[in-house]
C-alpha cells in the first residue's frame, strides 16, 4: 500500500502502536521485527484486542481482514511519519548530543509551553522507531515539537533527520559516549554533526552555544546560525552565577535558581533561555518554567534524607558526563563526601583505559571515599586507600549497607545497566 493511502487510514485511528502487549482501541498496529521477535505473529491478536488495522509484511497474512500488507513495516512506519510531519504546521526542533539531551528537551519544552502549544519526545523514544512514533503523535494544532535524536553509530542521525526534517537543531555537546559504536571521539563528532549537515543542506537554522568551541568550529561558515552566550552579547544570553548545589543564573540582571545541579546543567539551561527569547517568550515565563522544572528518573536529582545529601545521577554515564559530575561534586562545600561510580558501558576497546582515567581523576579531587563497582572498575590499578572496588552490585550493596551511615554526601552515577539507584532502597 502506498504511503498516501496508508495515511488516510492512519487519520481514522487514535494512535500508532508497535507493542502488541499495549494495544488500545482504534490504534494502528505496526508489526515490526527484531532479533528475537516478529510482530507479524501478533497481528491477529492485536486486531482482536482492539486495533483497527495491523500493518504487516508477512505475505501469509495479506488476505486477513484489516491486515495491510507492505514490503517492509519499519520502512512504512518511517515513511508514514515523514508524510505526517509534512502535513503539520508545527516548527520542529531536533536535539542530539552525547549528554544532556533529555534534560535540555524538557527545559525547552517547558519554556515554549508557556506561550505555544508544544509537544516533545516522551521517554526514550529517540531512535529509528521512537522518532517516527513521536512524529506520528504530533497533533494538527501543535505549534512546536521538540524531537530528541539518539545514536550510537554513524548514519543514524542522518536517517532520523531525513524522517523528521527539522526546522531547527541543537547539539548539546560532543563527548565520549558510545565509543564502541562510533569508534572514536572523531566518530562521535562526525555522527552527531549529521544534524548540522542536514540543516545546512536544507537551509534551516542551527542554535549554537558560543561557549562551546566545537559547536562554533563546525558551524562557523554557515549563515543561518542563532548564537547565544557570546562574549559581546546576542540578546539571547544568560549568565552563570553558581552551582552549590543548584544552578543559579542571571537573565537580564535578574537572578534565578533552578532545581538542577552542576555547572554542566547551566549549558542545558542556557539553550532553553536562548530558544525562549528567540521565540519571544517573556522573561517571567522563562524564569518560571526553568525554576519549576524538577529532574526525575535518576537524572541529577538531589535527595536529602536524615543528615545525608545524595546526588543521584544514575540514569546513564560515559567518560564525559562522569567527569562533569565529579567536577560538580568536587565543588560542593561539604564534608564526608563519597563518590559511588558504576561501570560505563559501550566503550569497546577504550573501556579499561577510560575507567582507569576516571578513577585517577576522581582520586585527584576533594573526596573522602571512592567506591567503584563493575567488571571494568574492578580491574583498575590504584594504591589509594580511599578507593574500594567491587566486582558486583551485590558486593557494593553489602558494603554500602554497613558503611554509608558514616558519611554525609554522596554522588551516585553509572550506566543504566548498573541501576545504582537500587542503593537507596538498601538498609
Structure description:
The protein is an alpha/beta fold and 427 residues long. 35% of the residues lie in helices and 21% in strands. The protein has 16 helices and 19 strands. The chain has a six-stranded parallel β-sheet with strand order 6-7-5-8-9-10, sandwiched between helices. A six-stranded mixed β-sheet has the order 14-15-19-16-17-18. Strands 1-2-3-4 form a four-stranded parallel β-sheet. A hairpin with a 2-residue loop joins strand 11 and strand 12. Helix 1 packs across helix 3 and helix 3 packs across helix 5. The chain starts with a helix and ends in a 14-residue tail after the last strand. 47% of the residues are buried. The model has no long low-confidence stretch (mean pLDDT 95).
The biggest beta sheet, please? 6 strands, parallel
- What is the C-alpha radius of gyration, as a whole number of Å? 23 Å
User: What structural category arises from helix and sheet content?
Assistant: alpha/beta
How far apart are the termini? 58 Å
Contiguous low-pLDDT stretches (5 residues minimum) are none
CATH class of the largest domain: Alpha Beta
**Largest beta sheet: what is the strand line-up?**
6-7-5-8-9-10
Instruction: Predict the CATH topology of the largest domain.
Output: UDP-N-acetylmuramoyl-L-alanine:D-glutamate ligase
Q: Based on DSSP secondary structure assignment, what is the total number of beta strands?
A: 19
Q: Under the CATH scheme, which architecture of the largest domain would be assigned?
A: 3-Layer(aba) Sandwich
CATH homologous superfamily label of the largest domain: Mur-like, catalytic domain
Q: What is the tally of helical segments?
A: 16
How many discrete structural domains?
A: 3
Average predicted confidence as pLDDT: 95
Approximately how much helix is present in the residues?
Answer: 25-40%
- Share of residues in strands: 15-25%
* Morphology: globular
Amino acid at each position: 500500500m502506498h504511503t498516501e493511502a496508508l495515511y488516510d487510514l492512519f487519520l481514522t485511528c487514535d494512535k500508532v502502536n508497535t507493542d502488541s502487549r499495549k494495544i488500545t482501541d482504534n490504534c494502528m498496529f505496526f508489526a515490526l521485527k527484531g532479533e528475537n521477535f516478529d510482530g507479524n505473529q501478533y497481528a491477529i491478536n492485536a486486531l482482536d484486542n482492539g486495533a483497527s488495522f495491523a500493518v504487516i509484511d508477512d505475505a501469509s497474512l495479506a488476505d486477513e481482514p484489516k491486515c495491510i500488507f507492505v514490503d517492509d513495516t519499519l520502512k512504512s512506519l518511517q515513511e508514514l511519519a515523514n508524510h505526517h510531519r509534512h502535513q503539520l504546521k508545527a516548527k520542529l526542533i531536533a536535539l542530539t548530543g552525547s549528554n544532556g539531551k533529555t534534560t535540555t528537551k524538557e527545559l525547552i519544552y517547558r519554556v515554549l509551553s508557556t506561550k505555544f502549544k508544544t509537544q516533545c519526545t516522551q521517554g526514550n523514544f529517540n531512535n529509528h522507531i521512537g522518532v517516527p512514533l513521536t512524529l506520528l503523535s504530533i497533533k494538527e494544532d501543535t505549534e512546536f515539537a521538540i524531537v530528541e535524536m539518539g545514536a550510537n553509530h554513524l548514519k543514524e542521525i542522518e536517517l532520523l533527520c531525513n524522517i523528521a526534517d527539522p526546522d531547527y537543531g541543537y547539539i548539546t555537546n560532543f563527548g565520549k559516549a558510545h565509543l564502541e559504536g562510533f569508534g572514536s571521539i572523531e566518530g562521535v563528532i562526525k555522527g552527531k554533526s549529521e544534524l548540522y549537515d542536514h540543516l545546512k543542506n536544507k537551509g534551516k537554522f542551527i542554535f549554537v552555544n558560543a561557549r562551546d568551541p566545537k559547536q562554533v568550529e563546525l558551524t562557523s561558515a554557515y549563515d543561518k546560525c542563532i548564537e547565544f552566550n557570546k562574549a559581546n552579547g546576542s540578546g539571547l544570553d544568560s549568565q552563570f552565577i553558581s552551582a552549590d548545589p543548584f544552578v543559579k543564573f542571571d537573565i537580564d540582571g535578574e537572578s534565578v535558581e533552578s532545581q538542577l545541579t552542576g555547572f554542566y546543567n547551566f549549558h542545558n539551561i542556557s539553550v532553553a533561555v536562548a530558544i525562549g527569547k528567540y521565540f519571544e517568550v517573556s522573561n517571567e515565563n522563562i524564569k518560571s518554567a526553568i525554576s519549576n522544572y524538577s529532574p526525575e528518573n535518576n537524572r541529577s536529582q538531589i535527595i536529602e534524607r536524615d543528615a545525608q545529601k545524595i546526588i543521584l545521577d544514575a540514569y546513564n554515564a560515559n567518560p564525559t558526563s562522569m567527569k562533569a559530575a565529579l567536577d560538580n561534586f568536587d565543588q560542593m562545600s561539604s564534608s564526608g563526601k563519597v563518590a559511588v561510580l558504576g561501570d560505563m558501558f559501550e566503550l569497546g576497546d577504550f573501556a579499561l583505559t577510560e575507567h582507569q582515567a576516571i578513577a585517577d581523576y576522581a582520586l585527584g579531587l576533594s573526596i573522602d571515599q571512592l567506591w567503584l563497582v563493575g567488571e571494568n572498575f574492578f580491574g583498575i590499578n590504584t594504591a589509594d586507600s580511599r578507593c574500594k572496588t567491587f566486582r558486583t552490585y551485590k558486593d557494593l550493596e553489602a558494603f554500602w549497607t554497613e558503611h554509608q551511615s558514616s558519611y554525609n554526601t554522596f554522588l551516585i552515577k553509572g550506566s543504566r545497566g548498573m541501576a545504582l539507584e537500587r542503593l537507596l532502597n538498601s538498609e
